[in-house]
Amino acid sequence: MSGLRLGVLVSGSGSNLQSIIDAVEAGNLKSEIVCVLSNKEQAFGLERARKHGIPAYFINPKEADYDVKVLNCLQEHDVELVVLAGYLKIVDANMIEVYKGRMINIHPSLLPKFGGKGYYGIKVHEAVLAAGEKESGATVHFVEVGIDTGEIILQEKVPVYETDIPDELQKRVLHEVEHKILVKAIKKLEEERA
Questions:
Q1: Site annotation (Raises pKa of active site His): which residues (predicted)?
Q2: Which tens digit of pLDDT belongs to each residue from 2-44?
Q3: Which entry of 52, 77, 107, 141 is annotated as an active-site residue?
Q4: CA terminus-to-terminus distance, the chain
Q5: What 3-state DSSP class applies to 105?
Q6: Domain regions of the chain by residue span
C-alpha cells in the first residue's frame, strides 16, 4: 500500500493538521504531508508544520492572484490529495476542477444538516443546539463547487446533551470525532489507491 502526497490547507490552530502529523509519525498513515498553506499569516497551523519540518506557506488572500498562487504551490509540491483542515475560505472552482476527486474537507456536522454558506466554526454548533438535535458529529467529504455538498467519505456521531452550550459541543465534536475521522478518511483513500 502506498501513501499519498498531502497538501493541507488551514486557517487557524491546525489541531486537525496535528492529528494527521501524529498519524504519519506513528506509522498509522503511509502518506506524507509535503506542504501546509494558510490564508492567515498568524495561523498556528503554520507553526505546527514548521516544528515538524514541513514546508509551510502564508499566501495573502488579498492578492488578486491568490487562487493561482495556492494552486501553483500545491502543484510545485506534487500534491496528490488536498486536505482542507479548518480552512475557512471558499476554494476556487478552477482548483476544485484540477483536484476533482482528490480534495477533501472536514466539516463539524452531520452533513447535509448544518452545512453550506454561513455554517462554520461555532456557528454550526449554535445551529445544532437551536434546532434541538439529539446528535451531531463530523463529516469528511470530497470538495465540489457547492459548499459542503460533495460526496461523503465518512461520518461519525457524538451525542448532544440538554445541558450543552455551543463551546462544549464544539470541543466534543473536535476531540472525539474530527481528529479521528480525518485520519480514517485519509487511510481509506490510501487503501482505495493501493
A1: 148
A2: 799 999 999 999 999 999 999 999 999 999 999 999 999 999 9
A3: 107
A4: 5
A5: strand
A6: 5-106+139-154+178-193
Question: Are 114 and 139 within 8 A, CB to CB?
Answer: no
Q: Summarize pLDDT for 42-76 with one digit per residue, the tens.
A: 999 999 999 999 999 999 999 999 999 999 999 99
Confirm whether 175 is a catalytic residue.
Answer: no
Write phi, then psi, for 154 (nearest 5 degrees). Answer: -150, 150
**91 marked as part of a ligand binding site:** yes
> Is 88 marked as binding a ligand?
yes
Q: What does the alpha-carbon distance between residue 99 and residue 73 come to, in Å, rounded to a whole number?
A: 13
CATH architecture of 5-106+139-154+178-193: 3-Layer(aba) Sandwich (3.40)
Pairing of strands 81-84, 103-107: parallel
